Amino acid sequence: MLLLVPTETEASPLREAGIPLEIVGFGPVESALRAAEILSRQRPELAVLAGLAGAYPERGLAPGDLVVATEEVFGDLALCFPEGLRPLSRKLPQRERLSLRGPWLEKAITILEKEGQEVEAGPLVTVCCASRDVARARLLALRHRALAENMEGFGVALAAERAGVPLLELRAISNLLEKPEDPWEIEKALYALKEALLCLWRNLR
C-alpha cells in the first residue's frame, strides 16, 4: 500500500503517525505528472490518494466527514458559458470519467465501517479552480451526481490506470461549498483523515 497526498498540509500529521507517504503536488496537472513518476517507479499493489475535499450542497456532509470515490470526474473538461457548463463535442478524444470501483474499494469501506468510522461512497469531481459560487457547485453536483470536489483525483486516477495500479481515494470534508465564506475546518478534517488512514494502514496491507 502506497500512500499519496497532495501537499505537506496533509503529509505532516500522517508522518507524525508513522505512515510513510509520497507527496504528489497540488492541482490536476502537477499531481498527475508526479503520480505517474512515482507509480511507474514503485509499482505498488495498491495506491491510496488521501486529502481534503469541499462538500457539494445538499449532500448531507459536514466538516470531518469521510468520503471515498467510486469514480473521478474531470469537472472542468467542458464548454463554459455564463449560465453553466455544457459537454464538449463527442467527436473530440476525451476522458471525463474514471471508475475507481473494485475489490479494494469494497474492502476499505468494510474495514472503516467495522472500526466504527462512517464513510460515504460516491463520485468525486476534480476541478482546476475551487468552487466559490454556490450555483456552480450545485451545477457540478447535479450534473455528475457527486458528493464533493477536489483538485487532484482525476489526474492521479489517470496516472494509476496507465501504470496498472489500483487506486483508492479517501477524502475528508474540510469545507461546505454552500457556505463558501465560512472558514475551512482543516484541523478537524485532517484528524478524521489520519484516523481513517491509520485504520487502513493496519488492516489493508
Automatic annotation (TrEMBL):
<feature type="domain" description="Nucleoside phosphorylase">
    <location>
        <begin position="25"/>
        <end position="189"/>
    </location>
</feature>
<dbReference type="Pfam" id="PF01048">
    <property type="entry name" value="PNP_UDP_1"/>
</dbReference>
<dbReference type="GO" id="GO:0008782">
    <property type="term" value="F:adenosylhomocysteine nucleosidase activity"/>
</dbReference>
<keyword id="KW-0326">Glycosidase</keyword>
<dbReference type="GO" id="GO:0005829">
    <property type="term" value="C:cytosol"/>
</dbReference>
<dbReference type="InterPro" id="IPR000845">
    <property type="entry name" value="Nucleoside_phosphorylase_d"/>
</dbReference>
<dbReference type="GO" id="GO:0009116">
    <property type="term" value="P:nucleoside metabolic process"/>
</dbReference>
<dbReference type="InterPro" id="IPR019963">
    <property type="entry name" value="FL_hydrolase_MqnB"/>
</dbReference>
<dbReference type="GO" id="GO:0008930">
    <property type="term" value="F:methylthioadenosine nucleosidase activity"/>
</dbReference>
<dbReference type="GO" id="GO:0009234">
    <property type="term" value="P:menaquinone biosynthetic process"/>
</dbReference>
<dbReference type="InterPro" id="IPR035994">
    <property type="entry name" value="Nucleoside_phosphorylase_sf"/>
</dbReference>
<keyword id="KW-0378">Hydrolase</keyword>
<protein>
    <recommendedName>
        <fullName>Futalosine hydrolase</fullName>
        <ecNumber>3.2.2.26</ecNumber>
    </recommendedName>
</protein>
<dbReference type="GO" id="GO:0019284">
    <property type="term" value="P:L-methionine salvage from S-adenosylmethionine"/>
</dbReference>
